[in-house]
Amino acid sequence: MSIDQFALRTAIANAIGYFTSVWFPTYGVTFLKHFPLPPNQEFNFLLGNYILVPAPLVGYLSYKLIINEQDPKRRYFLNFFLVVVSCYLTLPFCLPIPNYWILSVPICFAIITTAAIVIHDHEPNLDYINDPSISEPVKLTKIGLEYDIWFKLFLAILTGYSVVAVSYYAKVPEFAGLMTETRYEHWNLFSSFVFAICLNTIVFLGTVCLEFIERIVSIKDAVGKIKKQDDVAQSEQPREIA
After folding, report:
1. Which residues pair with 94 in a beta bridge?
2. Which of 9, 15, 104, 139 is an S-S bond match for 59, by CB 3.0 to 4.6 Å?
3. Can you tell me whether residue 242 is helix, strand or coil?
4. Secondary structure class of 131 (helix, strand, coil)
């Protein structure tokens, strides 16, 4: 049985999303001595190292979901639900409560991987390139419009993500400064946030961006196929006349 490469990439991305969401509240704040906590609460990591064990399970369940669920809408919902709920189940074991990192970060990863599934399910319909009743100029016009739509959508999403990521990164030093009192704590908190941003960006590039690139490349390949068909047709014309 062959491995579905898209399902595997998405499963790994979801596992990374779980790891990032749970890792920071478990380990990333252990060095903070002056972290502002609610009254009568302290950092308490009841599960210790075991809290990261479900990460491979999240990836496995994601893979099975993507390859087995046939209803697209259910697949989108269940993927989002799996990532978010698997992280939310760790909330009682990651004090203080509420832990806003775990409440927000899983949603970011779930949106990205769910968007990748949506893009994967909407492949461009290029069957008309093999239709002999459609002329080459019409085929090239249609495929040109298809290319423009996918390329501009890709640029829009890439630009939007970049703006959000850069804006968030610019706020990290200020945010870290409000939550720490020593240079050591500030540097460690800043590094943890940057690490999380980098992992999120890797997931974005390896899922959403890669799906867009595959669609754009397939359209460009189709253009080459149309031109090749036209060259073959022109080379056969003299023979028909003769």
Report:
1. 45
2. 15
3. coil
4. coil
Q: Distance between CA 220 and CA 158 in Å, rounded? A: 20
* 172-201 residue pLDDT tens: 877 767 666 777 777 777 888 888 889 999
Rounded to whole angstroms, the Cα distance separating 211 from 112 reads: 12
Total tally of structural domains belonging to the chain: 1
Output the six-digit token pair for 5: 């490469």
The CA distance from 204 to 226, in Å, is: 32
- Which domain, by its residues, includes 111? 5-241
Among residues 206, 194, 161, 162, the alpha carbon closest in space to that of 15 is found at 206
Task: Record the tokens describing residue 160, joined without a space.
Answer: 């939007």
Burial class (CB in 10 A: 0-12, 13-18, 19+), 171: exposed
pLDDT in tens, 90-127: 877 766 666 777 888 899 999 999 999 999 998 887 77
For residues 10 and 62, the answer to whether their CB atoms sit within 8 Å is yes
pTM: 0.83
State how far the Cα of 83 lies from the Cα of 170, in Å rounded to an integer: 27
